[in-house]
Each structure stands twice: as structure tokens, then as C-alpha cells.
Amino acid sequence: MSLRVLNPNAEVLNKSAALHMNINAAKGLQDVLKTNLGPKGTIKMLVGGAGDIKLTKDGNTLLKEMQIQNPTAIMIARTAVAQDDTSGDGTTSTVLFIGELMKQSERYIDEGMHPRVLVDGFEIAKRATLEFIEKFKTPVVMGETPDKEILKMVARTTLRTKLYEALADQLTDIVVNAVLCIRKPDDPIDLFMVEIMHMRHKFDVDTHLVEGLVLDHGSRHPDMKRRAENCYILTCNASLEYEKSEINAGFFYSNAEQREKMVAAERRQVDERVKKIIELKEKVCSSSDSNFVVINQKGIDPPSLDLLARTGIIALRRAKRRNMERLVLACGGEAVNSFDNLTPDCLGWAGLVYEHVLGEEKYTFVENVKNPHSCTILIKGPNDHTIAQIKDAVRDGLRSVKNTLDDEAVILGAGAFEVAARQHLVNNVKKSVQGRAQVGVEAFADALLVIPKTLAENSGLDTQDVIISLTTEHDRGNIVGLNHHTGEPIDPQMEGIFDNYSVKRQIINSGPVIASQLLLVDEVIRAGRNMRKPS
Amino acid sequence: MVFQMQPYGIQAMLKEGHKHLSGLDEAVLRNIDACKQLSVITRTSLGPNGMNKMVINHLDKLFVTNDAATIVNELEVQHPAAKILVLAGKAQQEEIGDGANLTISFAGELLQNAEELIRMGLHPSEIISGYTKAISKTIEILDELVEKGSESMDVCNEDEVVSRMKSAVASKQFGLEDMLCPLIADACIQVCPKNPANFNVDNVRVVKLVGGGLHNCTVVRGMVLKNDAVGSIKKVEKAKIAVFAGGVDTSATETKGTVLIQSAEQLENYSKTEEAKVEELIKAVADSGAKVVVSGGAVGEMALHFCERYKLMVLKISSKFELRRFCRTTGAVAILKLSQPNPDDLGYADSILTEEIGGVQVTIVKNEGGNSVSTVVLRGSTESILDDLERAVDDGVNTYKAMCRDSRILPGAAATEIELARRLKEFSFKETGLDQYAIAKFAESFEMVPKILSENAGLNAMEIISSLYAEHAAGNTKVGIDLEEGVCKDVSALSIWDLYVTKFFALKYAADAACTVLRVDQVIIMAKPAGGPKRDQPAGMDED
């Protein structure tokens, strides 16, 4: 072979061998992820090299955690991760769809079809499906007060595929309320404003939403209050500790008195700043039932803490940067960068601030705030893997709610869209296509069915039965999805099963692109030195 | 041609060295097996007659204990599924501080029974749904079984506390519970705040001193510090105390200071002013009425000298936490720098004296009026006995905390378990569908407790269980095993009670763990990460 002449060490696969390697890899990855799809999907246990446990049903987590080496599989996995980045869900579906496209193509290629023709068909089918999705989507109006029910349905659909039912239903409300809490009309939603905090404590069903903020550290002085009501909150990012000068300075003194003065002088600057805070406190907390809380992003040294504690101020030091932004959104006021010109307007307010100690860990709750624009989802669970699982699910749930608000549309779920799109392709589009590209359209249409098929398979139903009953019902003019308990067709609208429009769109967009690329590969060359194995 | 030979499927995709297990035989049953093995280890330690284990951990430290939490912690379980059980046990330990063994053993039993169901042909998802139903029913029944009139209790009444604490302590130190319980109860009651829900485990301290015997154990109202006084004054009574967090010494600047001396005269003067300064400070402290100075840092030679002169006792407590506890004990406020203390900042103790116990100099700080910190002084012949005693005391204190939150009790000595088993079985007959078998098995799993208890005590388990069932069917729902005589008796006569919360969390965590293990149908074990040997954990931030 020509390549051998050029580089005797290079490895090469050509023609059908290359194609089959790609197809096999796609099918292999599909097999791995297949069991994860849908509410009845099973859980996988990932054990890391260090022995750490991760339990997951989320395709994205799985792809990220698995150390995939096969080049084709990596390509597909990247597409799926991109899917997650743009829409937050649908990773498993993407992988399944790509795998199925490859599988369908394999049939035709084995019969002598050229991959190029199939790819042309894919392109036509993709465009037609994207047009179809526009017609098929259910628009929802998101005005000042969005329809909570729709949002809940979408969130529930997503969450139920990640967690078991009871927990998913509980999280649904939390997720929807969290997003609505941070939503400001006209501004894009920034999901970072929802703090996700976890506590290893109690059970997974004790997870709840805190309207306010939970910080994962406590005050650093034993005499500060552990619980305070009616609190003014000063959010600041200014150091309250002695800082050494940059240059190499030294003191010269010749008796102890002088030294005492030096010591006092050193402290003076910091003390001045503390005094300013205390002054402000005296000003706003004239009545005895209000309290004052300082939350500083920088440090507060023990003498300053002591001064603050003596005047009854609660001080938290070294808060996380991202929490500074959230604090201001949650409590109001503004974050100050210096203690000059402090006015009561800079202060936020919270009805209740308290510390919760859990073993060695301390948490500070800032609650009962007025008109919050930031909130905290407090995840509880008895162990780390439960918490990690909920965390991943919550993130996806939040994304799905945000997507719905952004898209202002939803798509009927439970496989209804796939069945409808397939029937549309076979009955209408295919006939309008000239020549052999029809085969590509057909392959694409059949590949769409992988979603309802897998849903049925994971529920222990007979896939062929299900597909036939679904398509017949559809041809009667009803839009139907799969009831995974019984295997009967149902109306997803009645059941409240909705998927994100953007998720489905992204799947239809990215799936065929990567499948086409893989199909059009006719030679795989590995040249260069293999780092892993000595030749 | 490496990749031409690659196999199909997941094997082709992952880094070399990974393992992939899936399906019933490879994943589910193997996981169950591993969990069974773990519970076999712990279950022989269940109950008062449980056997001790000798565990030597990776640091060559020897543990002789029957405390399941310690055992599984030191075993360093590697198997992922078994690890889930260990985590459940740990969660129980953190939540309640007792009942870890019940959690692990029960979860193991549930999984063992699940295996039988799987072999019968049930799908794991059916078992999970059955087990979930069963645990919620169990909680319902558990509510009904609560001993009447136990909802409210006087947490300051020693008898009531002891009766609730006894079974927890007895399961760790059988035979010693009658001696230990009053000690623990006494220590706990002393520090119980007005609102019992705020009881802090940290306020009951344990000091272990080798030598003597259990009879020498005492409770001290106050603290026992394991070090000597710094100066020559070893005993004071009814003393006010000044606490300095930053150390008792001359003050220093953060920036490096240099003494500028130009003549011999200045040199002489310098030390004089220095001396005068320190004397002034110490005098101010003495004038404030304090008789004891406690330092959180170094005590300077010169400062010590003046303290002696002004008849001040000097103590050094270098641990920040210990210092904080000391402040709580005496009601003192820690002052950062050496200066004249405010009268409000001074603490008070009835007596502070140093004593030699078993070759160790200890300082005993007593405060009869205070109710913030109490200390249990444990005496025993060896380190490991002391460690085990400490764990028993910890369990007792945790039980006290739990009863402060929820004082409801259940009949102990397996009476509750048999009743649960009986009622749950009745419930399973009413269920239709495949999960009734799972519920029945769940019920059967409860038999594990009386079985193990009697086996560990050398009794005939089958006989005991059948007679227990007979008694319970006759309506005597409080009949449990009397392990000493080997017969079934009403536990209210024996006064063996378990706390409701302990059982509640243990059963719930166990069922949760079992379901989690059953839910897994694929295990992917990743290859070891590349790179050198494992690095040590980076040093933490300045944890206070």
C-alpha cells in the first residue's frame, strides 16, 4: 500500500474496515448508554481509580467520567457533551440517535449503497424535520407571570429520568420556584444565581429550597451570636486585617514604651475601619431588637473580630466571591469595597441569620429576606454519592426550566415527537424526494424511532408491539406517546410529559452531522509514534 | 494493526485496566455477595453478647472493639457495593451516634433475602418497590409500637435517662452498663441546658487515664486538663480567672522590630522599662481580682516571674478548642492581648488544683455552680480498654442527645423487631402483585436481630424465635429475649428500651442502602489514574 511506502510504522484501515470500525464504535456506545434512557432506566455505578463511588443515570456524567479511548467513540461523546453544554439535557438521546443512524446506514451500505447517497438523504431529512419541529412545538407564552404548571411538567419530565419518582416530584417544585425566584423580566436568566449547597445529613427527601442564602462557613468568634433576627447585612470586600507593607520595613525603638506605641500604631489603621462599621451599626441599630451582620470576602483578624463581637456584630470572613453577588441579590444593599462613606443604603436586610453546626462543618443561613433575587437549593443526603446524583439532576432540572422560559415553547414527550416526525418523513417527505436519496430519508426516519423503542425496552415491553401500536394510533390522527407502565399509547399532553424544544432541536441538528462525518470516513490512519506501547 | 483486533462493545472504548460488570449475575448478585460478607463480619458484634474484633489498621494501631462504626471505618472497605453499606453505617453514626451495627447488619440481611428473591425470578425493580413499600409500612408500625407515655420525659431525671441509655451502653460494654450509665447520665444532666434540644455533645468531655480500674471512674463538674500548672502555685480555691488567648508575654509588633541602643546606659534602661512594663501589666491583672491566669500561647519567663510574685496561678492551654471550652466552663471571656481585664471578662472556678493520677499530672478545674462542661474521667488498665470505654461513653452521650430531641422509646431486646416482622407479614398477605414477596422477605429480615442476639449469647436461635412469635401472636407485644437466662420475657419487666429515633434512622438508612445496591445493574470500574503515588491531603486552612 502506498502509505506503507511512506511510513512503514503507520497503521491503516481502509474502505469497509474503516467504516465498520466507526459503526461498531457508535453502536457500542449506544449499547452502553441505552439502559439509561427514560424514567425506567437503570443506574450505573462508576468506580473511580481511587475507589470513589458515583451512581448515575445521567448520560452526560457517564460520558465525562468514563475514560473513553476509542477515537470514534470520543467524537460521539464530544457531540453529546456539547449537547449538554448548549441545552443541559438530551445527552443519552444524542448518543442513541447517532448510534441508530449508523446502524440503519450499515444495513444499506452492506447492500452496496454508497455512503454519500445516504448522507444526502440525511441532509434532506434533517431539514424537513427541523421544519416539522417548528410546526409540532407547543408554544407557551411567558409573560410577567409564567405558567407554573407547564414549567413544572417540563422539569418533572427531566428530573424523573435522573432520579426516582418520589424524589423527582419533590425537586420539581424546588427547581421551578428557584428559577422563578431569580428571574427578572427583560434580563437573561443567570442560573449561577441559584446557589447549590449540600449538607451530609438526614435523607435525600429532606432537600429543600431556601429563599435566601446558605454559606458553608460560620462566624469565627466564640462570643458572636449563633442566631439573630432582623439583621442588617453589610456585604463588603475590604480587608480587616493587618497587612504587611510591601517594602522591607523595620522599627527602631529604645524602650518598652516606644514599642507599645508602635504596636498601637500598627493596629490603628485596621481599628479605624472596624470603628467605621461599629459607627454605622450604632446608627442603624438604635433599637435593641435589630442586629448587624458583616459578611466580608477578605479576612478579618482576631483583634478586629474581638472588637466586632464586643459590640454584638456578627462577622463572617472569607466568603466566596460568587456568594458576594448572590448576597446582594438576595438581601438587597450593595457590596462595598471600602469602609469610607458607609451609609445605611449600603445595607441589606434579612429576617433571620443563624448558624447550623453539623459535626465539624458550620453553615450560616441567611433567611427571610425581602424580595429575593437569589436563592439556595439545599441538598441533603446521607452520603456523597446520593448528593452528587441529586446535584447533577438539579442542574439539569434548572436548565430545563430556563430553556422553557427562553424557548417559549415545549415539545410533547414520551416519544410522541419521534413517532410523529418519523411518520411525517415516511408519508410526506420521502415521496417528494427524487432518486436514491429516499433511502437516506428512510434510514433517518427509522433512526428516530430509537427513542420510543429504547423507552419500551427499558420498561420491559416488546419493542415491535409498541412501535406498531404507536404508529397505527398516530396514523389515525392522534398524537401519542408511550405509557411506559402499560405499553399502551397515551396522550402526552394529558399526562403532562413535555420535553424542551431546544433540546430536541439540538439533537436533530447535531446527530446527523456527526453521523455523516463518520460515514464519509474511508480511511483511518494512525501514524506517528505510539506513546503507550513500545513497538 | 492494533485497532483492527479490537473487540466490539464497551471493552473497545475504555482505557486499559478498567472492569465492566453488568447484568444480574455479574453486577447485582456479586454486589449482594460483597455486602453479605461485610454484614457477616459486623453481625457477630451485634448486641450485648457480641464478640470483639481485633482490627489493626494501616498505621499499625490496634483496635479491640465491638463498635461496628469503628470496625468498618478501619477495615477500609474497597468493594464499591459494600462501601454503600459502610456509608449508610457512617451516616447513622453521624446522625445518632449509635446503631451503626444494626444498619449494616440489617441492610446485609435485606440484600441476602433479595438474592433469594432474584433467584426465584423476581426483577430487582420489583424487589425495590416492595422494599420501599415495606419500609414506609415499617415506619408506620414503629410509630404504633412506641411505649405509651414516653413522649415526654424529664431529661434531668437520672433514672429515666439511665433506663433509656442502658441498652445502648450495654451493647458496647455488657456487664458494665450499671456502673457506666449513672456516670454518663450524671455528666450529661449536669450540662443539660434549659432547652434540652440544644444539648451539645461536645460539652461532655472524656479524659482517659491509664491505671486504676472502672471503680475509680468519676465525673467532674468542670474540666480536667492533662497538663500541669506552669508556675509553682498548684492550688487555688474560689478564684477569679483571666483568660488571655494570645499568650502572656511582652507585646510585639507584626513588623520586625530592632532595639536601638547607643550607650550602656540605654541598655540598662531598656531592660528596666521592659521589666516595668510587664510588671505593670501583671499588676493590673492581679489588681482586677484575678487569681489565675490562663494563657493560650507562650508564657514569657519574665511574665511568669511577676505572676509568681503577685501569687497568680498560671495555666497554659495551647489548643484553641480546649481554651474555648475552658472559657465556657468558667464563664470567662478570652482577652486577646495581655492587658487589664474588665471585671466582666473574668471567669470563676470553685477550685483549680493539680493532682497526679496514674503518673500523669492533671489539672482539675471544678465549678460546682456551672453547667456548661462536665468531664468523665475513665480509668482502665490498658489504652485499648480505655478506647473502648470511651466509645461506650460516646454512644451513651449521643443517646442522651437523641433522647433530648425525641424521647420516645420502643421495647428492646428484639421485641420490636419480632412485632414488626409479624405485622409486616400480615401486611404482605394483603398486597397483590409481585412485590408482596419482597415485603414478606423484608419482614423476615427482622428475624435477623433476635437470631443474632441469641446466637451471640449461645442460645438456640430457632427455639427462641418461635417462642417469641408465639408470645407475640398471643398479644404480648413486649416480649423480648432475656439473654442472661435465655428465656423470653416481657421487656418492661427487664426495663430494656431502645430509642425510637435510633431504630427509625437505622432501619431507614439500611433500607435505603439496600435499595441503592439493588438499583445498580452495571458497574464500571475505571483504570487507576495515571500519575505518581497518592499525594497527601493538602494542609487545611486555618481551621479554628
TrEMBL record, chain A:
The keyword Cytoplasm belongs to this UniProt entry's keyword annotation: yes
Keywords linked to the UniProt accession: ATP-binding, Chaperone, Cytoplasm, Nucleotide-binding
Taxonomy, superkingdom: Eukaryota
Main localisation: cytoplasm
Keyword Signal (UniProt): no
GO terms assigned for molecular function: ATP binding; ATP hydrolysis activity; ATP-dependent protein folding chaperone; unfolded protein binding
Compartment(s) of residence: Cytoplasm
One CC-aspect GO term: cytoplasm
Family: Belongs to the TCP-1 chaperonin family.
Record PANTHER family: CHAPERONIN
Role this protein plays: Molecular chaperone; assists the folding of proteins upon ATP hydrolysis. Known to play a role, in vitro, in the folding of actin and tubulin.
The protein's name: T-complex protein 1 subunit epsilon
From TrEMBL, chain B:
Top-level lineage group: Eukaryota
Protein's UniProt keywords contain Iron: no
One Gene Ontology MF term: ATP hydrolysis activity
Organism: Apostasia shenzhenica
UniProt keyword ATP-binding, yes or no: yes
Pfam families: Cpn60_TCP1
Lineage, highest ranks first: Eukaryota, Viridiplantae, Streptophyta, Embryophyta, Tracheophyta
The protein's name: CCT-theta
Cellular compartments per GO CC: cytoplasm
UniProt keyword terms in alphabetical order: ATP-binding, Chaperone, Cytoplasm, Nucleotide-binding
Subcellular compartments: Cytoplasm
Signal peptide: none
Family in the record: Belongs to the TCP-1 chaperonin family.
